[in-house]
Design a protein that fits this description.
The complex is a heterodimer of chains A (about 400) and B (about 160).
Chain A lengths: L2 H10 L9 E2 L2 E2 L1 E2 L10 H14 L9 H21 L7 E4 L2 H13 L8 E5 L8 H10 L2 E5 L9 H7 L4 E7 L11 H10 L4 E4 L11 H4 L3 E5 L10 E5 L1 H6 L10 E4 L4 E3 L13 H17 L1 H20 L4 E4 L8 E6 L4 H10 L2 E2 L1 E3 L4 H6 L5 E5 L6 H18 L1
Helix pairs in contact in A: 1-11, 2-10, 3-10, 11-14, 12-14
Chain B lengths: L4 H4 L2 H8 L12 E7 L4 E10 L2 E10 L2 H13 L5 H15 L27 H19 L5 H5 L2
Antiparallel strand pairs in B: 1-2, 2-3
Helix pairs in contact in B: 2-3, 3-5, 4-5
The chains are: A alpha/beta (about 400), B alpha+beta (about 160).
């Protein structure tokens, strides 16, 4: 470990009030960041600041509070645009999270293009939220879902993926980073392969955006979705990026206020981007909180975060493997912040309970990725996932916890 | 002060989770039912053979955590020879025990099942302990139905 990365976590930990507590009499070791990350005080202050001082609806009031709220809300759109390096702010649609972003694209963009026999291509490492929306619209249209396989390390078999993009493929939707395995997909290459055959691509960035710089123009993807709460922001808000040309041509996902230009009972003229896709009063406080979170991440620097988390993952992988009978699920060469593991003869839920009593929060279960579990022939794993504020000492605590699991149930 | 995790993982529970008893398909079972906890993926299939109103034999198969496996294993031992009414009363007492409501004086003697008392300190694990009991109820309810079609009783 280098001095610079050792101090990153130590320097920022005090920004996160929730980290400063004990659980079952032990200092909290929060290693469930792939589920949701803790929030820095700057985010909490931004949310409180809106409710305490600027609380008003947006885009409609002529009064001062509404003006301030609108400015903060649209300011966050600019922050999200810069975060993703999107060409235009109107390509940023605020949604409830990655799941809603994917559903929006499925219903407004993909579904109208599907005919019986058409195909949607995903990978075998997708989260349920990047499987189920496609199954729903496939079922409605007679299209089918095809799944590019992964190998025993949890790495996508890239040439199989490429060969599966055929004349019937109408859409490709892939995760940038697997939530259950940590695998990083070569999404820029995958987008190029799909585009070479004229197929548009959505990238699920839920597990990537908190950990690495994203440049949607460099990736070339047509859509990109991520969730605010995994990037140290609030729950209930996320971002869908879409190329303006595509978004412009898409019908609205939901109807309501703010997404229209004029309404009579005979006809409605829809508003332009991005408002066409933001029907109703949005999660204003959430969007403002997300803006604060993106500022916070920008201040720390995603390159610093990536370097620190990379060292944590390497250290944790080495240390966990020193415990006999522990197996890591997901051993792809390129991984991000996720350590999924099983302890021989011990069910992951028991691992989760015993670790919890040591103050260590991990996820135990199928991680909303049941097909991934089936691929590896296991019902579940325990998963430790890292954030910028995690320390090497916390990894040591995790390893001690796993040894205790073995002592009790091994 | 929080209870030690060893209160939960009593020796008897660890033993039954590592070497579950009656873990097999029961030939000639009168009914079976499958229990599934979608939240954690625990699965158990319970097989019951009845003689009149009495549970003559039972067995289980499944995939789950130490608590759910030990609970299923101990259930198959404890329930053998019990009537439906006795099984129902045991379920009520067991449920009270693991949810921390305390065994009622009027309830039946829980015996070995008392080893699950520690579960009450771990609310998220109550479902693991009770899964097989709910499955038992489902299996018994199937035999009650007029069994005109043996296959229908097994269907799931």
């Amino acid at each position: 470990m280098t001095a610079a990365t050792a101090t990153l976590a130590e320097r920022i930990r005090r920004d996160f009030p929730a980290l400063d507590q004990t659980v079952h009499g032990r200092p909290l070791v929060y290693l469930d960041n792939a589920a949701t990350a803790q929030k820095p005080r700057a985010v909490l202050d931004a949310i409180t600041g809106y409710y305490a001082g600027d609380c008003a609806n947006i885009h409609r009031g002529i009064h001062t509070l509404s003006e301030r709220a609108t400015e903060a809300y649209e300011g966050a759109r600019g922050k999200a645009q810069r975060f993703l390096k999107a060409p235009e702010a109107r390509e940023i649609i605020f949604v409830r999270g990655t799941t809603e972003g994917i559903n929006l694209v499925a219903h407004s963009f993909v579904r109208p293009r599907l005919k019986p026999g058409d195909e949607i291509l995903i990978t075998a490492m997708e989260h349920h939220s990047n499987i189920v929306p496609w199954q729903i619209i496939a079922g409605e249209t007679g299209a089918s879902l095809r799944v590019a396989p992964i190998d025993d390390h949890g790495e996508l078999i890239l040439d199989r993926f490429e060969r599966m993009i055929g004349p019937r493929t109408k859409f490709v939707s892939v995760t940038q980073v697997s939530n259950a395995l940590g695998t990083v997909n070569p999404v820029a290459d995958m987008v190029a392969m799909a585009h070479a055959r004229g197929v548009p691509v959505l990238v699920d960035g839920a597990q990537a955006a908190p950990h690495r710089k994203v440049d949607v123009q460099a990736l070339g993807c047509d859509f990109y979705a991520f969730s605010g709460h995994k990037v140290y922001g609030p729950t209930g808000v996320g971002v869908l990026y879409g190329k303006a040309g595509l978004l412009d041509a898409m019908p609205p996902y939901q109807g309501g206020g703010d997404m229209i230009r004029s309404v009579t009972f005979e006809k409605t003229e829809f508003n332009g981007l991005p408002y066409k896709f933001e029907a109703g009063t949005p999660d204003i406080a959430g969007v403002i909180g997300l803006g604060a979170a993106l500022d916070y991440v920008g201040k720390i620097g995603l390159d610093n975060i990536a370097a620190h988390e990379g060292e944590l993952l390497r250290y944790a992988t080495d240390e966990v493997l020193k415990v006999p009978g522990v197996r890591i699920i997901g051993t792809a060469p390129k991984k991000e912040g996720v350590l999924s593991f099983v302890v021989d003869g011990v069910h992951p839920h028991d691992v989760g309970t015993i670790l919890d009593r040591e103050g260590i929060a991990v996820r135990a279960g199928h991680h909303c990725a049941q097909p991934v579990m089936a691929r590896f022939g296991i019902p579940a794993t325990a998963r430790a996932s890292f954030a910028a504020y995690n320390t090497f000492e916390e990894v040591d605590a995790l390893v001690r916890g796993i040894r205790k699991v073995k002592e009790i149930l091994g | 002060m929080t209870s030690d995790v060893k209160e939960l993982y009593q020796q008897l529970i660890v033993d039954h989770s590592k070497s579950p008893r009656n873990c097999r398909v029961l030939e000639g079972a009168d009914a079976s039912a499958e229990g599934h906890n979608p939240l954690c993926g625990d699965r158990v299939t319970l097989f019951v053979k009845l003689e009149g109103d009495r549970v003559k034999d039972l067995s289980f198969q499944g995939n789950g955590c130490a608590i759910s496996t030990a609970s299923a294993s101990l259930l198959t031992e404890v329930l053998k020879g019990k009537t439906r009414a006795e099984a129902e009363a045991l379920f009520t007492s067991f449920h009270d025990l693991v949810t921390g409501h305390g065994a009622k004086d009027s309830g039946p003697e829980l015996g070995k099942l008392k080893v699950f008392a520690g579960v009450s300190e771990f609310p998220v694990r109550v479902k693991c302990a009770t899964l097989v009991w709910h499955t038992l109820r489902a299996a018994l309810a199937r035999v009650q139905q007029p069994a005109t079609d043996a296959d229908a009783a097994h269907a799931r």
